[in-house]
């Protein structure tokens, strides 16, 4: 049974194009995989705690050596890692805020980038341990950053490609709704092109 993990990171509950388009993708995936399961993490409705000294200490303490406080502190992170490891497909709704990811998405990444679980250090350096998951990232941005003079400001896709690749997630497709700050016609065009990309990713 295929499993999809759906991460929403927009702080907007309404009017979010990253939410709208990623939800359309997930609905279409479910229609094509009626026996599949979806786990959703909405980082706006249920924000994750940011890193603390105690959590970092628990990360780098062997499970059998953790004290009671460390075992309690790391429990949520372990659940998030388990969800990611179990996923066959990862869908991330990632609006661009100030040229990068939201703080909520960064917090999720900090919880799942775990040495010994999602990556390890070997003789040749770091090695990602998640190798069989397909990733779709839905980006919404007011300007156009995939090409043109503002491309150098795109620290969202470059960061996500790097950090996901570090974990072994190298099969990543970015579906962009760009230039949506330029009026209704631009929004309509962005939605149309994104829906074409969804149809190509999940053909009927």
Describe this structure in words.
With about 200 residues, this protein is of the alpha/beta class. The chain has one domain (about 5-200): Flavodoxin domain (Rossmann fold), CATH 3.40.50.360. About 40% of the residues lie in helices and about 20% in strands. The chain is built from seven helices and seven strands. It has helices at about 15-30, 55-60, 70-75, 75-85, 105-110, 155-165, 185-200, and strands spanning about 5-10, 35-40, 90-95, 120, 125-130, 135-140, 170-175. The strands form two sheets. The chain has a five-stranded parallel sheet, with helices on both faces. A two-stranded antiparallel ribbon has the order 4-5. Helix 6 links the parallel strand 6 (about 135-140) and strand 7. Helix 1 (about 15-30) packs parallel to helix 7 (about 185-200). It is globular, with a radius of gyration of 18 Å.
* Tally of individual domains: 1
Overall radius of gyration: 18 Å
Q: What spatial order of strands do you see in the largest sheet?
A: 2-1-3-6-7
Strand content: 15-25%
Helix/strand-derived class? alpha/beta
CATH topology: Rossmann fold
Q: What characteristic shape results from the CA principal axes?
A: globular
What is the CA–CA distance across the termini? 19 Å
Give the rounded overall mean pLDDT: 97
Q: Find the CATH superfamily.
A: Flavodoxin domain
- SSE pattern: EHEHHHEHEEEHEH
Low-pLDDT stretches are: none
CATH class annotation: Alpha Beta
Number of helices: 7
User: Architecture, according to CATH?
Assistant: 3-Layer(aba) Sandwich
Question: Based on DSSP secondary structure assignment, what is the total number of beta strands?
Answer: 7
Specify the helix fraction band.
25-40%
